[in-house]
Structure formats: C-alpha cells, structure tokens
Amino acid sequence: MPELFLKPADLQDEPVVDGLLDQLTTYSMLVDGVPKAKDGARRFLTAFPASRSPESKQPFLVMHDAEPMGLADVIDGYPTAAVAFIGLLAVKEGDQRKGLGRAAYELLERFAHDRLKVGTMRLAVVETNPVVGFWHKMGFSETGEIAQYAGEVKTARAILMEKAILSGI
Asked: What is the 3-state secondary structure of 54-74?
C-alpha cells in the first residue's frame, strides 16, 4: 500500500493544483467536455455550497513524500451536520491503478471521522465518469437521488452515493 498524506491546500497552492489538473484531462473531458475547466484550480480551492461557510471547505493535495499525486476536497456539514461531502478525489492519470485512489480515500475518510467528527461520507458521481464501481469498492451505495451536473460544455446527471463511516477503516 502506498504511503500517502493529505496536505491542506490554499490559494498559494494554485499553481500546483493547476499542474495536477493538467494531468487529469481524461476526467475533465468526461465530466466537463474540455481538457481543463476554466479557473479549475481556483474553484477547487475555494468553491463551496451557498448553504455553507468558506471554513467548511477542506481542500487537500494528495502527497507521496514531497510530490503531489492528486487532489481531494471535502465539505464539512454538507448537506447536513453529520455528513462530509467529497467534492473531488482524483489521482493524476499516470499514477492511477496503483492503489493510490483507495489510499487517498482512506486518508480522507479518517480525516472526516477524526477531525470533522462526522458519521457519513457523501459524494456525487457524474454519469459520464465511469467510477461508480470504484466507489462501490470503497463501501458507498447509491442513495437513489439524482442531481444535475453542469460542466464547462456538457451537462449530465450525477448519482448521489453515501457511506456510513465508523472509527475503524
């Protein structure tokens, strides 16, 4: 299992986030219809739901030693107080299928449980992005809810998924 850690990210990390987004073009084409969304790095670092405060946004660089390998973010208390919503969890394309996504998710879940004190993780998978199977392996199930996702040039349905988290991962 790869040894990774989550490094809190802020606007000073915008160039690093932008560089990682350059290595996520397949994902971007699937969900947004463009190789990289405009202002994607800034939005990753700062966007949060209108019902939450800026402090609820927790963006991270997924690091292996000193090298950024991916991105992860979670919204604390969204849509309800006991829930942490994963906005993005992505490992750069050259490092996929090596167990890094699973390891990064486990770190994010541990953070949500230990630091945010939530009992549920939630996320939305854009239907054009074939990763529902990954999230099933992480223990998530569809809630039956569907939302609309508006990408840069394409729109799609988003499947909401949820997982109860416990003290042990």
From this structure: HHHEEEEEEEECCEEEEEEEE
Residue 14 amino acid letter: E
Which helix (H) or strand (E) segment holds residue 26: the answer is helix 25-31
Q: What structural domains and CATH numbers belong to the chain? A: 5-121 (3.40.630.30)
- Low-confidence stretches of the chain (pLDDT < 50) are 1, 168-169
In terms of Cα–Cα distance, which of 125, 133, 122 is closest to 97?
133
**pTM of the entire predicted model:** 0.93
The DSSP string of 67-106 is: EEEEEEEEEET-SSTTEEEEEEEEE-GGGTTSSHHHHHHH
**Residues written for the chain:** 169
Confidence (pLDDT) at 99: 83
Q: How many Å from the N-terminal Cα to the C-terminal Cα in the chain?
A: 14
The DSSP code for 131 is -
